[in-house]
Amino acid sequence: MNEKVMSEKDNQPNWGEIAEKFDIWLPQLAPVGEALLETLAAKNGDRILDLGSGTGEPALSLARKMNGQVSIIGIDAAQGMVKVAQKKVIDEKLPGIEFQTMPAESISFDDNHFDRALCRFGVMLFEDPLKGLQEMHRVLKPGGHFSLAVWSTPETMLTLYWTYEVFKHRIAEDLYPPLKKVTSLGAPGLMETLLKEAGFDDFNVESITFHYKFESFDAYWDAVEASDILKMQYDALPDEERPQIRHEVGRFARDFIKDGVLVIPHDYLLVTGTK
Hints:
Elements: H1 3-10, H2 15-22, H3 26-40, E1 47-51, H4 59-66, E2 71-76, H5 79-92, E3 97-101, E4 114-120, H6 129-139, E5 140-151, H7 158-167, H8 179-182, H9 190-198, E6 202-214, H10 217-227, H11 231-235, H12 242-253, E7 257-258, E8 261-274
Parallel strand pairs: 1-2, 1-4, 2-3, 4-5
Antiparallel strand pairs: 5-8, 6-8, 7-8
Helix pairs in contact: 2-5, 6-9, 7-12
């Protein structure tokens, strides 16, 4: 995806610019990556494609586990994300994995090239999700397996729902947090329809709940601000209103604090299948 166009069109953060900070969220997202790798069930000798790799997970975890026994290509349209991911490969001297800047809608590999494909929270952010899934179908070998994760419905993606509710009365609609885009594939039956249109007929869609866990609300809000995930929205506000945003999000969060610890449930769809 073109970073500038997508940031303006869908109110997403500029993924290339915040790439160095995005890893703040990796511990929270780790359970989803683990579920994807478990269902992917990679085997020695597999060629594996990770679409929308971001800063490299869960492809990097798979590379560490397989220790050069598979060949992994991670792709992402945001060059900044790819740069961060590839630096980890170099720093760790990981064998059998590399990252390339490439949109999912235009994958530069031959038909029937990969044994397996995965994507963690990327499909709904593609410029064209259907085209991306069609490309994934094209490059998978017959019988090739895929494991995908997409966010579920808006009300079950609580952290983004909270900020959407707090910001929506303060800034222009075209700057609202990207709740609609991020949860755009979560409606019942939608992923099934897209997969069929993309050419798949053997798949399963399962709703799963996992939790963000922070030692306190302050720790959570520090992560929000340090990651610049809401930079676009904050830039549209006077500086003096920032504390009020924190206060109002804190009111949402208080129902999820027990013994000082903040535990926030989120739902996602685990999508698995074969070509």
